[in-house]
From TrEMBL:
One of its GO terms (biological process) is bile acid metabolic process. The gene is fabG_3. This is 3-oxoacyl-[acyl-carrier-protein] reductase FabG. GO terms for molecular function: oxidoreductase activity. Keywords: Oxidoreductase. Belongs to the short-chain dehydrogenases/reductases (SDR) family. InterPro entries: NAD(P)-bd_dom_sf, SDR, SDR_fam. It comes from Virgibacillus massiliensis. The keyword Transmembrane helix does not apply.
Length: 263
């Protein structure tokens, strides 16, 4: 299937590690012009180097951007538009909020999760939509979590903020479809990233068991009996953000190996 992404301008936020890096790599393999962002320039430089080496695509660049800073987001978008004149695809991604129960989370945790995991998506979309409206085309994919379908234990911040992304995407699908801008939400289940391994580590410490035991128990609950790979998750994003998707908008997809049982 030809995704028709060659020379298309793609932004992947939080693209230096984990799912973001896997997504950026998938677009680079399709010969897109890819921009990744994060706060850490060292990590960005290394990610760009590795993506170029793996894909042979030299049209991969980075922009340092703190997604909690509205001015930084505006500057990132303006900088890319100055170089490319058009933005075809926006992949909104952000690191997951801290694990913990309700009473463990003070206002600082809540404000941080709101700014990083919901408001940053709003700000980035607001910055790219006018240009997408001008060209009468665009794809936006918001990366969330399986908590958009089912509340996850000990992840109250994610369970609260991530469903807000679904409401945002559903609303914007209604407002922007007339401009041929398609927007969807994709949530990873147990995809093997540093975040999942960190959550396993904390769970193992709390239970007094090994990390391997926690992982084995988690994988046993997945119908496919294994964690997903980041590149598998990236394939779903790639399709929804490509020219192959011409009619899917306002939808929420979970990539989880069948783990979540809600309808």
């Amino acid at each position: 299937m030809d995704m028709q992404l060659q020379d298309k301008t793609v932004i992947v936020t939080a693209g230096s590690k984990g799912l973001g890096k896997a997504i950026a790599t998938a677009f680079a393999e399709e010969r897109a012009v890819v921009y990744i962002s994060s706060r850490n320039e060292t990590n960005l430089k290394q990610a760009v180097k590795e993506i170029k080496q793996k894909t042979g695509n030299n049209s991969v660049s980075y922009v340092v951007c703190d997604m909690k800073d509205p001015q930084a987001i505006k500057q990132m978008i303006h900088s890319i538009l100055d170089q490319r004149k058009t933005i075809d695809v926006l992949i909104n991604n952000a690191g997951g909020p801290p694990a913990g129960s309700f009473l463990e989370m003070n206002d600082e945790y809540w404000y941080h999760a709101f700014e990083l995991n919901l408001l940053s998506f709003i700000r980035t979309i607001r910055a790219v939509v006018p240009q997408m409206q001008q060209q009468q085309a665009g794809h936006i994919v918001n990366v969330a979590s399986s908590s958009i379908k089912q509340a996850l234990d000990n992840l109250v911040l994610s369970n609260t903020m991530r469903p807000g992304i679904v409401g945002l995407s559903k609303t914007l699908a209604q407002e922007l479809s007339q401009d041929n801008i398609l927007i969807n939400t994709v949530g990873p289940g147990s995809v093997k990233t540093d975040r999942i391994l960190d959550l396993n580590r904390k769970q193992a410490g709390k239970l007094g068991v090994s990390e391997e035991e926690v992982m084995n128990k988690a994988e046993a609950q997945i119908p496919m009996k294994r964690y997903g790979r980041p590149e598998e998750f990236a394939k779903a994003i790639l399709f929804l953000a490509s020219a192959s998707n011409t009619y899917i908008t306002g939808q929420s997809l979970i990539v989880d190996g069948g783990l979540i049982k809600s309808l």
